[in-house]
Amino acid sequence: MTEKQRWTADLIPDQTGRVFVVTGANSGLGLATTRELARRGGRVILAVRDEEKGRRAAEALGADARLLDVRPLDLADLDSVRAFADRLRAEHPRLDVLVNNAGVMAPPRTLSAQGHELQFATNHLGHFALTGLLLDLLAAGTDPRVVTVSSINHRQGSLRFDDPNGERGYAPMTYYNQSKFANAVFGKELHRRLTATASPVRSVLAHPGYTATSLQTKDTSGLAKLFFGRIGNPLLAQRPERGALPQLYAATDPSVAGGEFIGPDGMGELRGAPTRVRLSDAAADPATGRRLWELSEGLTEVRYV
């Protein structure tokens, strides 16, 4: 995209008849994504941890009620992920796009229902399991895609295979960066595996740059919460409507290819219009992808066919 062709939500093609799942759809990037997809005629299933908040968010959008469907999903709880997928499979013969958007950031060390570190469980394992459980519905879709939302922080992250749950030393931002690195590794490895099986599903990665959402302040602890709440978000960050553009582009633009990474085109990829950006060499490493895949299958008991 050139400067004269900078992409905006007004360029989203007509989405009438298409079915989307957006995780974390009741606020921030997820809500902004839901709004634009519904505005273009897409039917959006809002996958949310708090169903009442999801209903209020859906009502506030003012979209045709037939286009929005709120469903409970706690990505940190693999039982909830399976229940969500089972219900969706019972009610829908196909799914066109899954947007793996939801996340938590830098909370005090907390374990999920299955005993996994909360950020790794929510940001990566829940989405890994959800994608695997819905992959056959996606394969039946039209121009089907999985959009996994990572972060510029993936470039600061690594996978602590010997201590994924922070038992021997937990630092909130270190483990947030691990989860975002895992998102990037997963999206790229998923692309490899889909390509190898000639699947019609495309795996695309996106990141929002620096965007002001409740992610940075709701669960965040310590100095990170102070910085984001008092300085970063009010003064430096862009609005969710702008931050959601890369994932909207990844989900809807006909030119997007599997394996691509979409982020803002501005300085440092902090803000701007969607463009193709570089995945870190570490995240693109096939050996790391295979290792994370094996770990994730073992922890979730979800195996892709």
TrEMBL record:
Cross-referenced CDD domains: retinol-DH_like_SDR_c_like
Gene Ontology terms, MF aspect: oxidoreductase activity
Listed Gene3D superfamilies: NAD(P)-binding Rossmann-like Domain
Residue stretches making up the Ketoreductase domain: 18-170
Pfam families: adh_short
Domain of life: Bacteria
Signal peptide extent: none
Keywords attached to this entry: Oxidoreductase
InterPro entries on file: KR_dom, NAD(P)-bd_dom_sf, SDR_fam
The protein, known as: Oxidoreductase
